[in-house]
Amino acid sequence: MSNQKKKLAIIGLGGQSRSELIPALLKLSDKCEIVAICDVNEEFVKLTQEVLPNHKNLVVYKDYKNLFSAVGENGFTLDGVILSVPHFLYSEIVELAIAKNIAVFKEKPFALNLTEANRLSTLALKENTQIYTVTKRQFYPSYAMGLQLLHDGAIGTPYMYSARHFIPHGNLYEGWRSSVQAAGGGAMIDMGYHLLDVIMRYFGDVSQTKLQWTNVGKPNYTYEVEDAASLITWHPVGVQGVFQVAVLSGPKEESIEIRGTKGRMLVTKADVTVFDNNGEEKDHFAFETDSIDAVVEAFEQFLQNDKSIWTQNISHNMKIMRLIDMAYEGRFQ
After folding, report:
1. Mean pLDDT, residues 131-152
2. Verdict on whether the full-model pTM lies above 0.90
3. Domain spanning 6-135+293-323: which CATH class is it, in words?
4. Which of 73, 96, 245, 288 is the most buried (most CB within 10 A)?
């Protein structure tokens, strides 16, 4: 992508696109413009048109294949596509974009499984075309502060963590999310991806895992994927951890507690608290977290099309995919 205003298309106009992706792009209107949108849902198209200032000039597609076929015809060009679609659609859309040398910004997960992830990462590198998977937690001030405090030795040498992510309203029990073939898995690869991203940034690669999971949260439904899971990990740096995730159990909670030789640290989306080994509070840092601002930061990286940035993004997401593959032990492939 050049230094001129980037021309973008959005494929998938559901809640994530309308609540975060589009508002974030509008904050960057000096750097990019949305020239096309695509969704089979006419109501989603109408709602999207209403919030875009140039909606009368938008090109609207129902089929993403027609969108890519139109690129290069009658002066229609694209620098990037923004994807927020069911997991099983990502691979084909990414491949169509790369075939046209169009950069891709997408929601997590990077892929359905490790096999697909290997194929897409190899293709992106071979064709020198960007794939950028957004993981917002890296841009949340609290998680960034937690990482800095770890590096500064605020709790000494870390050796154990406990991460928790619970929401009461997950919808993994119906629709495409309930199918292994369509979703790649359940709570761990979907909502769990957020804190797996944090865990990998904090402690690096994982060499051993053990996953226990259930799918009984909605007794009147039959679904293949896990709605609750506990993952035990071992990191070669000398850290053990437990990560619990559940999508049908409130109240809403997201945190990671880390124990070290000199104390303990609790990180949430809103704050970071440091304790000594006796449990006395030493420091507390409070933050305002805005998910749209986090997406803005991700888009700013994407719009640079800096190969050192997007290859690092691919590398990091491949590590997450390898961890998920280890956890699932091939049971979903």
Report:
1. 98
2. yes
3. alpha beta
4. 245
